[in-house]
Amino acid sequence: MQTKISSIIIFVIILFNGVQAQSEIYIRVNQIGYKKNERKVAIAFSNSPAKGHTYEIIDTQNEKAVWGPGKIEKNIGGWGNFDYHYKLDFSDFEKNGLFRIKISGTDWRSQPFRIGENAYDGYTQDVIGYLQQQRCGYNPFFDEVCHPRDGRTVYGPMPDSTFIDVTGGWHDAGDHLQYLLTSGNSVCRMLFTYRENKGKFKDEVDRLGHKVKNGIPDILDEAKWGLDWMLKMHPKPDQLFHQIADDRDHIGFKVPFLDSADYGWGKGSYRVVYFANGKPQGLKQYQNTSDGLANLAGRYAAAMAMAYDIWKNDLDNELFAERCLQAGKEVYEMGLDKPGCQEGTPCRAPYRYYESSWADDMEWGAAELFKVTEDEKYLKQSKKFARLINTTSWMGQDTARHYEYYPFTNIGHYALWQVADEEFQDTLANYYRVNIQGV
């Protein structure tokens, strides 16, 4: 009897190990979709070898195979929680429709995905809609007003708790903090994207996000929501604020117009606004290691210079354009005066944004200022900052702190490339080449 039981146990162990050896294959596709005539690749993950399996394309309308079988072949290596991953290339399948990938002879399949020339249609509006949902002040998603008492100052040249009006902008991610560090970059990316792709953006809402056309592409309405807030964060030529609220916000999920966080003036009342002094900050146990503010200043200048170009030449609003350009010049000078990075400011926890690179931002700001002013000093300074940042990047690194190399792609090299001489263009292109090869 003992021998029989032992044999059963051994058999069960072998069977269990056999099941493990054939562990499920997980398929990841581009859930936005694939264009009909472009490359189409999915990724298969597993914790045991999947080589030898085949896969096919299934039409979701009738669950019939319409392509395949393709072979799972070369293991690329471990990824995340998985020991194996493989590329599934089905680029030669060019039928329009809604499909899944299925591992042949199993029930393992992907999420549905679309193939067609219109696969990406509407996604720019989705991104803009997400930003509208994040709006602080008047929010069209809720049709409510939040945080009308922003904010009371700290670290500034004025007495602490002085009120200044910094309402507006966007909440950051899933909480209600607001950062010039991230929002300034968001404005830059929208303005950059608009200039590179004019004519591709819809007009479906007005400046407040209401479903009323106003003759202005929605991407510029959203960018201006950020620009107006950035101008408030720079109330005087030598002043710049960089953050509203801190981790005292983190008291659970809450809708913004019912925010009950307390910054010392009562629940749901005034919030703190941090002055960018280029020095370590933190009101309680934890402090950051800020050593300047050029990271903020460079992006600020780039945003305002691009805004000047667009509002003057495309929207015929010279008054707003001139206001932006003046602010951009002023804050850029602050960056020259205080090279280094203004990090996110913590309070009750050590968590923060650790941005450590700033020359890339100053390069971008100087390049954009040169484009609109034709002042040679900006071109000379942009080249200096380009050489300084060189190939510094997250690319090729295996470790980085939270947001250390933000904003992750140096558009400054590209902005300068547009106005540089041919020899320096080659230098800038090589910086990108080294980064890509590093990956």
Order of helices and strands: HEEEEEEEHEEEEHHEEHHHHHH
Mean pLDDT: 93
Query: Helix/strand/pairing class, anyone?
Result: alpha+beta
Shape: globular
What fraction, in percent, of the residue positions are helical? Answer: 25-40%
Question: Beta-strand percentage?
Answer: 5-15%
Strand elements, count: 13
| Main pleated-sheet profile | 4 strands, antiparallel
Distance between the termini: 60 Å
Regions with pLDDT < 50 over 5+ consecutive residues? 1-21
Radius of gyration: 26 Å
* Strand neighbour order, sheet with most strands: 4-3-6-7
How many helices does DSSP assign? 10
Care to give the gist of this entry?
By secondary structure, this protein is α+β, with helices and mostly antiparallel strands. It is built from 10 helices and 13 strands.
